[in-house]
Amino acid sequence: MTAGLSRMFWWHQQVGDNLEVGFTNTSAGNLALHVGDDPDAVLRRRAELESVMGVRPGSLRFMNQIHSASVAEAAGPGCAAPTADGLISLDGAAPLAVMVADCVPVLLAGAGPEGMPVTAAVHAGRRGLLDNILPEAVERMRAAGGTALRAWIGPCVCGRCYEVPADMHAESAALLPATAATTRTGTPALDLPAGAEAQLAGLGVAVERIAGCTLENDQLFSHRRDPASGRFAGVIWRRS
Ligand SMILES: [Zn+2]
Ligand SMILES: [Zn+2]
Questions:
Q1: Residues spanned by the domain of 9
Q2: Residue 58: inside a domain, yes or no?
Q3: Which end of the chain is more exposed for a tag (fewer CB within 10 A), N or C?
Q4: What phi, psi does 142 have (nearest 5°)?
Q5: Residue 26: inside a domain
Q6: How far is the CA of 142 from the centre of ligand 1 (A)?
Q7: 3-class SS at 57?
Q8: In sequence order, which residues have a C-beta less than 8 Å from that of residue 13 and are 6 or more positions away?
Q9: DSSP annotation of 235
Q10: How far is CA 121 from CA 21, 57, 83, 236, in A?
């Protein structure tokens, strides 16, 4: 791992031939253009991230995330970011990013046709998770010929910290029972990563959970801890 990677990433791993996955930390800075930050500074940080990832400048694909269950195919560099909450690359060639600050970032990879990987990056907040964005992404990857799918669930707010109103707890538990949780003080809570893991495992996807609660770690951005917070990113890419 290069010095840049270890400095800018909370966790990073090579997971296959040239295929790498990771989640940035606050040292990589805010990577989102929609949180009121200086756009030039955000673009400089994205360029620095691409440089340590070893991908071409401007090649990292982002999406305009709206807590939907829509998955879009990654377009070429220079195209506008699609409005979606899942990005898929049919040959793994496009480096993909999902931005979060408490929601669940999920990276997926599978063996695709002609020896190329199929990859995806998914923004699984409460709404998207309950609306089945993960099954949608898995279905799209399999439709593209993806097999032996693996998923990495990144740092997000944990089930002991994510307090919600009782009616929201009941709705979530009815739709996805594994999300039902209680806070340290015994109030209704949601465990979104547990819900994501249960859903993916139920679809036959091999899941790895990366430790780290965003609310409890100030090396990660948390919208609940700081409503003016930036966003960190989950990224999946092939080193060229
Ligand atoms: Zn979110
Ligand atoms: Zn926590």
A1: 3-147+215-238
A2: yes
A3: C
A4: -70, -35
A5: yes
A6: 25
A7: coil
A8: 20, 21, 22
A9: E
A10: 10, 19, 14, 7
What is the CA(125)–ligand 1 centre distance, in A? 5
Tally the C-alpha atoms within 13 A of residue 221's C-alpha that lie toward its C-beta.
Answer: 27
- Residue 147 one-letter amino acid: T
pLDDT tens digit sequence for 195-238: 999 999 999 999 999 999 999 999 999 999 999 999 999 999 99
Please give the structure tokens belonging to residue 158. Answer: 């944990």
CA of 233 to the centre of ligand 1 (A): 11
Asked if residue 32 has pLDDT above 60, the reply is: yes
Half-sphere exposure of 54 (CA within 13 A, CB side): 14
Query: CATH no. for residue 48?
Result: 3.60.140.10
Number of domains in the chain: 1
Query: In this structure, which ligand is nearest to the CA of 225?
Result: 2
Q: Is 187 among the domain residues?
A: no
pTM score:
0.97
Residues with CB under 5 A from ligand 2 (ion): 158, 161, 213, 215-216
Identify the nearest ligand to the CA of 103 by its number.
1
SS3 (DSSP) at 33:
coil
pLDDT for the residue 140: 97
User: Residue 87: what residue type?
Assistant: L
Distance 212 CA to ligand 2 centre (A): 8
- Burial of 147 per CB tally in 10 Å (0-12, 13-18, 19+): exposed
Among all bound ligands, the one having the nearest atom to the CA of 157 is 2
Residue 25 lies in a domain: yes
